[in-house]
Write a structure and sequence with these properties.
Blueprint: E1 2-7, H1 15-23, E2 31-35, H2 45-53, E3 59-62, H3 65-68, H4 72-85, E4 88-91, E5 94-96, H5 101-134, H6 147-159, H7 164-171, H8 175-193
Parallel strand pairs: 1-2, 1-3, 3-4
Antiparallel strand pairs: 4-5
Helix pairs in contact: 4-5, 7-8
């Protein structure tokens, strides 16, 4: 039995997950961990190590599907790799063996569940942002320059007497901001022509 634990914030503790894995029969030296890494990203050192360590007949033990993957594509890829290697998956002690039809069905269901969970999280986040916006608490990123500053910046740019670097220094912004303001004006001009 080989265990995997993950916490997404560096300050969070892995103690509870480690204890749960040991209680499920995993030897402490067979626990692989990732700290401060989201499950939505597949490139995780601990996950890479555990996937390299498991062999046919092994059981990968996790305390929950969300510790293993938080996105549908990653859950699908991980479970496919486990299936290919002939590795069972234990979620909180429930072992799913890919060698039998029920196990394969459960692997497919787990893929769907992971995708469903991620979709629900995105939906809740959008709903929360919409509520915050309606209450005036979510205003988005504020522009670096006020309207009069933008007008003056564009006048200086159009005059052609200063470089973008000089204008950026004058307004205490990056050259990218200058470029963005010029593009924004061009887009607005094109829109008016239509």
């Amino acid at each position: 039995m080989i265990g995997y634990a993950r916490v997404s914030m560096k300050g969070h503790e892995l103690t509870a997950q480690r204890k749960a894995l040991i209680a499920l029969g995993v030897d402490e030296e067979n626990v692989y961990v990732d700290r401060g890494l989201t499950g939505a990203n597949r490139p995780r050192p601990g996950l890479r190590e555990v996937m390299a360590a498991v062999r046919g007949g092994d059981t990968l033990v996790v305390t929950g599907l969300d510790r293993l993957a938080r996105s549908f594509p990653d859950a699908r890829d991980i479970t496919r790799e486990l299936l290919r290697k002939g590795v069972s998956l234990s979620l909180r002690g429930d072992v799913h063996d890919p060698a039998d039809p029920v196990g394969r069905g459960l692997f497919a269901l787990l893929e769907t569940a992971a995708g469903f969970e991620a979709d629900l999280l995105r939906m809740r986040t959008r709903e929360g942002m919409a509520i915050a916006k309606a209450k005036g608490r979510l205003r988005g990123k504020q522009p670096k320059l006020s309207v009069p500053q933008r007008r003056y910046l564009l006048q200086l740019h159009d005059a052609g007497e200063h470089t973008q670097a000089e204008i950026a220094d004058l307004f205490n912004v990056s050259r990218t901001t200058i470029y963005r303001e010029v593009l924004r004006r061009s887009a607005a001009t094109e829109e008016k022509k239509r």
